[in-house]
Here is the input.
Amino acid sequence: MAQVFDRSSNALARFSLVLTGIIVVALGVTLNELQRSPWVTRQGQRPDQPIPFSHKHHVEGLGLQCQYCHTSVEDSSYAGIPPTKTCMNCHAQIWTNATLLEPVRQSWATGASIQWIRVHDLPDYVYFNHEIHVNKGIGCASCHGRVDEMPLMYEENTLQMEWCLNCHRNPATNLRPTSEIYNMAWAGPSGDHPVWCTSTGQNTNPDGSSIPTSQQVSCTTTDPTHSGPEVAQLQPPSPGGLGRPQSGFGSAPHPVEGGEGQSVASPLPLQLKTVNYQKFTSQMELGKYLTAEYHIRRPEELSSCETCHR
Ligand code: HEC
Ligand code: HEC
Ligand code: HEC
Ligand code: HEC
Ligand code: HEC
Here is the structure.
């Protein structure tokens, strides 16, 4: 009987073994890739919303501020999605017959909220909080991209752990003055476009209530220092020290006939105070300054597991 397996089939067996190996490895690589792919992370996808709401039209076109609709973003972990009432503020008068807006009118008539599909959705085991990020100088655009240019909302970043950690290990590269958190076009300081900042170093109001760290710093993109690094500002004097810059403008304290238990604001004259501005021409300089002023924790603390998994 002739040999059943000749030499060539031996080679074939070996070849198919190698091939299987390659397939297994390739599958592993693919699965790993897949986990990071937009298909899984949903990065860049535009889900079919019940209404094709355009941020581009409402933000860039009409000039609406983010807070007009996402009211709780500065003082809660959630930014929040606006109720139908917010849309009806305008759409009770404009585009009242548009079929596109039928679901809005229906929701208003029935009281059933619009079923928006979530675009960003972290797993439950991850703790996230908007309040701390925006109050420590991380702008919406750093995480959500140029929302003002999005006809339909999509996820700009993966929201994967690596992405969070990338910033937590080096927040300075993303820090901006808190006055700029809603500024979609903020590009950070440069030689041509410097930023000047000053800090009051003051953490309590005259009435003893505390001032958030971020509000002790004020920055500007127009040169406040034509006449040297010190700028005179009008400030109402206060027993506990000086208030926030400009807090006295336009509202010079009036003498108030105090009722019971009410403190009487004294009609003290405004005082001249000098304010020191520091000039920044690069993101790294500004980032370092704000890291200190906003009391940003060390990278090791920010990337420890308990920060996000509690
Ligand atoms: C006129 C109201 C309005 C304004 C102004 C507005 N938004 Fe929205 N936003 C919405 C609505 C409605 C949705 C839900 C529908 C959608 O995802 O497009 C939404 C969704 C979002 C989402 C995605 C939510 C999710 O499902 O994950 C982000 C992020 C967002 N907005 C950011 C912003 C930013 C940043 C600004 C300011 C530049 C802004 N929005 C201004 C109404 C508004
Ligand atoms: C401040 C007023 C205002 C508010 C608030 C507002 N809209 Fe509008 N909306 C407009 C105007 C004005 C237009 C027409 C814009 C255009 O044609 O450029 C418009 C257009 C639209 C359109 C038509 C498509 C488009 O984008 O041009 C849709 C859909 C829409 N709005 C949905 C909503 C929803 C949903 C909400 C609530 C989350 C909302 N709007 C809140 C003023 C508003
Ligand atoms: C540090 C990154 C980061 C910054 C800065 C940030 N967001 Fe978000 N945002 C997220 C993440 C992550 C989610 C998803 C949260 C979840 O699934 O629990 C989200 C969700 C949202 C949502 C969906 C509703 C909600 O509250 O979960 C809206 C709306 C939103 N962001 C608006 C804003 C606006 C407006 C700003 C700026 C004032 C902003 N975000 C700043 C990361 C950020
Ligand atoms: C662009 C930069 C940036 C990105 C991206 C970012 N963070 Fe942060 N995060 C910060 C900064 C800055 C702080 C404030 C640190 C401080 O105050 O010490 C912070 C603080 C936190 C805190 C601490 C809150 C507290 O109350 O202690 C948590 C939790 C957190 N981030 C979760 C996340 C998660 C989850 C993601 C990803 C989905 C994320 N962050 C993405 C910059 C970022
Ligand atoms: C800055 C926030 C942050 C920190 C710090 C952090 N994680 Fe995560 N982690 C996340 C986010 C966001 C996800 C969800 C990823 C996703 O949805 O794909 C995640 C997911 C995970 C998962 C699920 C599997 C995976 O990779 O998707 C594990 C396990 C995990 N983290 C462990 C850890 C450990 C261990 C540490 C400490 C060394 C840590 N994490 C620190 C934000 C963080």
Q: What stands out?
A: Confidence is low (pLDDT under 50) at residues 237-266. Residues 49, 53, 55, 58-59, 64, 66, 68-70, 81-82, 116, 118-120, 140, 144, 147-148, 153, 184 surround heme C (ligand 1) (CB under 6 Å).
